[in-house]
Amino acid sequence: MKKSNEKGFLLAEAIVVGVFVLSLFTFLFVNVVPLVGRYESEEKYDDIESVYNANLIRTMIMEDDNLASVIKLGSKPYLKYSPSALCNALKKKNYCTALLGESFLNVKNVYVTWYRTSNIKNSAKTSADFDRASRDYIDSIDGFTQPAGTTYAKFHRLIIYYNDGRFANVEIKVSE
Amino acid sequence: MKKLNNKGMTIIELTLSFIFVFTLAFSMYQLLFNYRVKQNEESIKAQMLDYKNQVTLAIQNDISEKSLKSIDYCTNGGKVVDRCLILYFNDGTTKQLAVEKGTKEYDGDEYEIDYITYGGIIYESADALLLEYRPNYMLYHTYETNNLEDDNVTIYRISIPIYHNDLEGNYGIEIVAIGYDYNYEETSEVVTGGTVQTPSSSLETAEGRTYNGYVTTTNQTINADSNNLSVVARVKFSKVSSFQQFFGNWQLGGSGLSLSSKTSTSNNKACFGAQVSNSNDYSSEYAEVCSSNTLTTGRFYTIVGTFDSSAKVMKIYVDGVERGSKSLAANSKIDRSQLAFAIGGNPGYVNNSNLFYGTISHAIVYNRTLPSSTISSCLASGVNTSCITSSGIPDSSRLIYENLTK
């Protein structure tokens, strides 16, 4: 009669199983936690207040006599303005300073970019003009296609970065 | 014969196994419990945001449609009413925004919000959502400027902080809005105080009458089907970047002048638009021609729109210079409107939107196509009606309002 093998697990077998189970948990953890983090950060993207506020900034820029120079991209993928830099570039400096300041919109940065966002998406990956939060936001926004009945060249895009970590983007018409 | 290993697990091995399994189970429980808490928080957050969005949208819609003039605290018998603001709009209407206090009070000055009212509409939160209001925070901050450079604007910030016991942070209503005080002139006052000339006998006597903040005239015959037409207005805008219909009789048919086009509502161009039908295929569409140049505030412009029924061409002139033309298909004609011309608004819009902001000194309709030579010599730097002649005699085929003053 053949003897039964009743020796139990070897240490090596136990370690292998332990490592396998640990790897499984690590894999789940690593994949689930960033999803939650991403969901939480996306709560700060394009909410109703930040979009309406972005519209105020768009209107201010469009009504300004210096519109053309402020939004002129040339060959650049984007322009980055701090509130003071933007207000200095606009004719209505006092109004701009008040609107973008802490008491009202509390803006950190304003980016002017092309209607399509592929250029700024590429730049954001490496440029020091973007911190991690702005990089994540730009990565998350749509590529945007041509608006119906017109050409995308007539539009640029404003990306507003608020000091409380919220973001919004709106298109801005630059020519007829 | 070799002995079997029948010793089983030692007490230490057993204990270690239990600890391991317990730790694993506890970790899983913690993880699931955290997610359950998070799910509950997100559910409350969603309701909070839904509530906030409803109120915000109602207010923002009014601000964009009616143009905010100013915000002030509500008063009763000369005393300021707590938790209540009144919003004044440039179309003359007002709306009240108020937080109604519930019965439950918390420590300090915090208490339950019963509901928020805006413009007489009650916005109640979901039953399960107990909103806390922390006074005296129905604030509005302002930045005012009378600096000409800044167009006399005021920046307002409405802040209604709302909290929830189970959440951190403020989920309140925060609205930043720009108030434009244009010293809005009711066009009814403008016209009734001005000189109204009587057109030819074939046309009715022009009389202004008040209608929802702008003036309609009694004449309906000047824009009969297929007629040649010239519409003239001398205007000064106190606000731009919005669609303003300031002289016309748009209603199914009709035509008129506007700042910006119907489709590009903030491009600040002078536009002449008309409802045009084609007797060939019975199609009907809104056609318009806009100036190549943009207009601004603070100065008068003389704007002329013409329609030539023979050449089927619409044109727009600004200060005597042709700034755009549009050719229409053969057999096109401007449809007759069911309404008379209105000064300062669109008579076909019951909700009174697209109102004009500024001053109109002259508003004239000719039932002929003024030639460009006449427009360049008589309607360049002002309105010289005596210069506008037909076959050498002063033109009387017109409906005219001039020297309009408040």
User: CATH topology of the largest domain in chain B, what is it called?
Assistant: Jelly Rolls
Can you write the helix and strand succession of chain A as a string?
A: HHHEHHEHHEE
> Could you state the order of secondary-structure elements of chain B as H and E?
HEEEEEEEEEEHEEEEEEEEEEEEEEHEEE
Number of strands of chain B: 27
Poorly predicted spans of chain A: none
Instruction: Show unreliable segments of chain B.
Output: 146-150, 184-216, 218-226, 391-397, 402-406
Give the CATH class of the largest domain in chain B.
Answer: Mainly Beta
Strand content of chain B: 35-45%
Give the overall silhouette of chain A. Answer: elongated
Which class best fits the helix and strand makeup of chain B?
A: alpha+beta
Termini separation of chain A comes to 96 Å
**Strands of the biggest beta sheet of chain A: in what spatial order?**
1-2-3-4
Q: For the residues shown, what is the average pLDDT of chain B?
A: 73
- Approximately how much helix is present in the residues of chain A? 40-55%
Q: In the residues of chain B, how many domains can be counted? A: 2
Number of strands of chain A: 4
Give an account of the 3D structure.
The complex is a heterodimer of chains A (176) and B (406). Chain A has a 4-stranded antiparallel β-sheet. Chain A has 176 residues and is α+β, with helices and mostly antiparallel strands. Chain A contains 7 helices and 4 strands; from the N terminus they run αααβααβααββ. Chain A folds into 2 domains: 11-43; 48-173, no CATH class. The mean pLDDT of chain A is 85. In chain A, α6 (118-126) packs antiparallel against α7. Chain A has helices spanning 11-42, 48-63, 67-70, 83-89, 93-100, 118-126, 132-140, and strands at residues 78-81, 107-114, 155-162, 167-173. Chain B has 406 residues and is α+β, with helices and mostly antiparallel strands. Chain B has 2 domains: 38-180, no CATH class; 187-402, Jelly Rolls. Chain B has 3 helices and 27 strands. In chain B, the strands form 5 sheets. In chain B, strands 12, 13, 15, 16, 17, 18, 22 and 23 form an 8-stranded antiparallel β-sheet that branches. The A-B interface holds A 3-4, 6-8, 36, 43, 47-49, 52-53, 56, 59, 62-63, 91-92, 94-95, 98-99, 103-105, 173, 176 and B 2, 4-6, 38, 45, 49, 52-53, 56-57, 60, 141, 143, 145, 147, 149-151, 153, 155, 157, 174-178, 240-241, 264, 266-267.
